[in-house]
Specification:
The structure is a homodimer of 275-residue chains. Chain A is α/β, with parallel strands linked by helices. Chain A folds into 3 domains: 5-83 and 173-181, Periplasmic binding protein-like II (D-Maltodextrin-Binding Protein, domain 2, 3-Layer(aba) Sandwich), CATH 3.40.190; 88-164, Periplasmic binding protein-like II (D-Maltodextrin-Binding Protein, domain 2, 3-Layer(aba) Sandwich), CATH 3.40.190; 192-270, 2-Layer Sandwich (Alpha-Beta Plaits). The first copy, chain A, is 28% helix and 35% strand. Chain A is built from 9 helices and 15 strands. In chain A, the strands form 3 sheets. In chain A, strands 1, 2, 3, 4, 5 and 11 form a 6-stranded mixed beta sheet that branches. Chain A has a 5-stranded mixed beta sheet with strand order 8-7-9-6-10. Chain A has a 4-stranded antiparallel beta sheet with strand order 13-14-12-15, with helices on both faces. In chain A, α8 runs antiparallel to α9 (248-260). The longest helix of chain A is centred in the C-terminal third of the chain and has 13 residues, at 248-260. The radius of gyration of chain A is 21 Å and the shape is elongated. The model of chain A has no long low-confidence stretch (mean pLDDT 92). The interface between A and B is large, with 40 and 40 residues.
């Protein structure tokens, strides 16, 4: 069997790469992409068989851009994985903790390590476009006296050292990633369904939509609203519910939902992430 | 009557400043703040009587950070305003359109002007921390051959010139701002209520919550979910509905909602923005 090629956004050593190994093991080939749009595109054009994109972080919330890309691309969700985000202080060999004067990382990562910076007021925070990209820059420019905040595997990839682990303020910091593919396939173990719909603009519209699940005792695990482009303050709703689309009650719920929505698409049916 | 002092995030000339004038007229004093957290803080500590913060953009979605700050601060929503976001190409006097080689702006603004950059591939996009701040930098450093993308009033504030208007790809680009105050006051014209609640973790919990509105024919205008810190994949729900908390059906709906939620807070009752 040919090696699976998996696209993700960011430099080598990103949290997405770590999540890909967690979900699929190390026998994959990876394809780092500059943007989320390019990540989706590389699956659509066949350069990769799948991509793994972050969709939700327990502290920062949903990754809106990827919700929008799910909607504007024809890819199917075929799996998910939840990764604990551990922020590490990483520097080149020869730089010790007391040498560090600047720390580079993505603004979200810097914000998630507030306690560390409060304890080290002499250290300057410098926003950078990417966590792993900051480690890459340290390595390329042979920067001493500087460090980056990034994933464990970024240290491996760029031959750097971890000076401190668990800089994150909140340990309950998880990111949920979706595995997307051009081909729709539903595993017999699939126990979660993701859909997107838009409601008619009438009172109680969302309530009617949710009734199709509540009346059949189907659990929702997520509900997210996104603005409809060109229609200010109207929304798409993204819903995850527990079940398999081959079950009769789920088929009935989706048929019923079709009656009360303007638009409905099943994004995928897949095995939910083990906690 | 003393002049109202209104805090907002960003440099002078920001879209928030433009929104403040639209909602409150020009007879206010403004207090620019570095972060959203400082903006809230300056109202809490009395340095400003109110603040105006963006909560939702029709293209980019909700401003999560401000939803979280609403929850962690004790301020009340006392008004809202919706501003059409018009992106202008702004440069110092003496720089013409054909001289422009670099354009500085906030990444979201750069992303919203994709067509302009596609038509002008020779122009380099440079991400900057703030739209108005980019105009300020051009002025401070006397930069020629460069421009910024920012609000109309940023050009006034920094004595710069508008080289082109309406660079935004989508004209249906509106941002909704909330006016927040330490004092709770409900205008007789108030016709909108914002609340936040968390549900019990049982099947159909959200459906039961929405039923308190649907059963009383109360219209929802917004539903937003935010992760609960420390409880991965559990959520707070932010709901806006049309009504006044002094109306009996609204009082009843909120009492009923209290029965089926773990936590419930009324964030404010205010006059909705004219479209």
């Amino acid at each position: 069997m040919a090696t699976l090629i998996v696209a993700f956004q960011g430099e080598r050593g990103s949290f997405s790469e770590e999540a890909a190994y967690k979900l699929l093991g190390h026998r994959i080939r990876i394809l780092p992409c500059e943007t989320f749009a390019a990540t989706f595109q590389n699956v659509a054009n066949g350069k990769a068989q799948a991509c793994l994109v972050p969709i939700e972080n327990t502290l920062a919330g949903s990754v809106y851009e990827n919700y929008d890309l799910l909607q504007s691309n024809a890819l199917h969700i075929v799996g998910e994985v939840s990764l604990r985000i551990v922020h590490n202080l990483i520097a080149l060999p020869g730089t010790s903790r007391k040498d560090v004067r600047q720390v580079y990382s993505h603004p979200v990562a810097l914000a998630q390590c507030g306690r560390f910076f409060a304890q080290h007021p002499q250290i300057e925070r410098i926003p950078f476009y990417d966590t792993a990209g900051a480690v890459k820059m340290l390595a390329e420019r042979r920067m001493r006296g500087a460090a980056a905040i990034a994933s464990r595997i970024a240290a491996d990839v760029y031959h750097a050292r971890i000076l401190a682990r668990h800089l994150e303020d909140h340990h309950e910091n998880f990111t949920r990633f979706l595995l997307l593919s051009k081909t729709r396939k539903v595993s017999p173990r699939a126990d979660k369904v993701s859909i997107v719909f838009s409601t008619r603009n009438v009172p109680g519209a969302l309530y009617k939509c949710l009734s199709v699940f509540a009346l059949r005792d189907i659990d929702l695990s997520k509900l997210e609203s996104r603005p409809l482009r060109g229609k200010p303050f109207e929304y798409f709703f993204y819903v995850d519910f527990l079940g398999n689309i081959k079950e009769e009650r789920c088929r009935n719920a989706l048929a019923h939902l079709g009656e009360v929505t303007n638009f409905l698409r099943v994004l995928g049916c897949y095995e939910s992430a083990r906690k």
